[in-house]
Write a structure and sequence with these properties.
Helices cover 61% and strands 2% of the residues. It is built from ten helices and two strands; from the N terminus they run ααααααββαααα. The longest helix is centred in the first third of the chain and has 40 residues, at 2-41. It is globular.
Length: 332
């Protein structure tokens, strides 16, 4: 009996040792699996393909629908609100999603407040009225409501608006391709690109003059600020800012291609088509493949590349072209 007991104890000990040896191997396999999935989910989507349309406004609406669907249907779906691995450990693709989402929100707001209304006193279009708040739901919301459900509902309302644009019997859904409407939206684009350019440039520590009140001697600010400002993006946030800019540029690129179609007559009359195409060229450069396995942060003229500064250069040039385009549109 004693020998049998010792044998049983030996078996239990052997099983425990075997289990202790297997646990690290299983964890390694699990980590490798999560890594492979994360790499697959980090693939950036292709450009949108717009169907040929005869109705003004459908291409721009298609751009909004396409961007929203891409956020939900790309590999891994919408990752920003994931609470399970590997999504919860990813930061680059959620940053990309945020950049694209900001451009989508700005476009839907412009559709609701500008493009679909003939004047400030006109009644707003109901489908767009319902769509805009759906896309403003917190992107990290994962229950009650989930961001995906709200964005999908927003897509449904955008599709309803698009269908009404093509229906001659529907008089309560219009798209006004006017120079002033386009200029108003471009003013928002300027601020988005300017913000991204400054944050990307801050990958290298800089001292900047405080020009917040420049040009207006009577201007005031709530809190007194120093004449020089030192800015530096935290090291762990550099890749997040880069991919946010990349996602924002991708979404804006899709929108501008649609705008070129819907506002063709306006751009031609203002002799501004070439200016719009130059913006598109600069944004296309932001989407070139990143061959480095990580976002490098070399000094300005150092041995290593600084991907953030390269991206900032393209975005700053696009922003300058946007300002020129808006000036052309506002001229008589």
């Amino acid at each position: 009996m004693a020998d049998r007991g010792l044998t049983e104890i030996g078996r239990v000990s052997f099983r425990r040792m075997l289990l202790l040896k297997l646990i690290p191997s299983l964890l390694a396999v699990l980590i490798l699996l999560f890594y492979v999935i994360a790499v697959y989910w980090s693939q950036e989507p292709d450009d949108l393909v717009f169907p040929e349309t005869q109705v003004v406004g459908q291409s721009t609406t298609d751009a909004a629908i396409g961007i929203a669907r891409t956020l939900l249907e790309k590999p891994g779906g919408f990752i920003s609100n994931d609470i399970m691995p590997p999504g919860v450990f990813m930061d680059d693709m959620p940053a990309w999603e945020y950049g694209a989402l900001v451009q989508l929100r700005d476009l839907v707001r412009a559709l609701r407040n500008d493009f679909s209304r003939s004047q400030s006193q006109s009644v707003e279009q109901n489908d767009l009225k319902q769509a805009e708040p759906r896309f403003n739901v917190d992107r990290e919301s994962w229950m009650m409501p989930t961001a995906e459900d709200e964005y999908a509902e927003g897509i449904r309302y955008l599709k309803a608006y698009r269908e009404k644009l093509a229906d001659e019997n529907q008089q309560n859904a219009q798209f006004y391709a006017r120079a002033d409407n386009l200029a108003d939206w471009l003013r928002t684009v300027e601020k988005r690109l300017g913000n991204l350019s400054q944050r990307l440039s801050a990958a290298v520590q800089q001292e900047r003059e405080n020009i917040d009140l420049s040009g207006d001697p009577a201007a005031k600010v709530s809190t007194r600020m120093s004449e020089a400002v030192r800015v530096k993006t935290p090291w762990l946030k550099i890749d997040d800012v880069f991919y946010e800019a990349r996602g924002s540029s991708w979404a804006l690129l899709q929108i501008l291609r649609a705008v070129e179609k819907d506002f063709a007559s306006v751009l031609q009359k203002k002799n501004a088509t070439a200016s719009l195409r130059q913006i598109i060229r600069e944004l296309e450069a932001t989407q070139r493949p990143v061959w480095s396995p990580m976002i490098l942060n070399g000094s300005g003229f150092g041995l290593l590349a600084n991907h953030s500064l390269v991206m900032a250069s393209y975005i700053a040039r696009a922003n300058a072209a946007v300002i020129d385009l808006r000036n052309l549109l506002t001229q008589g």
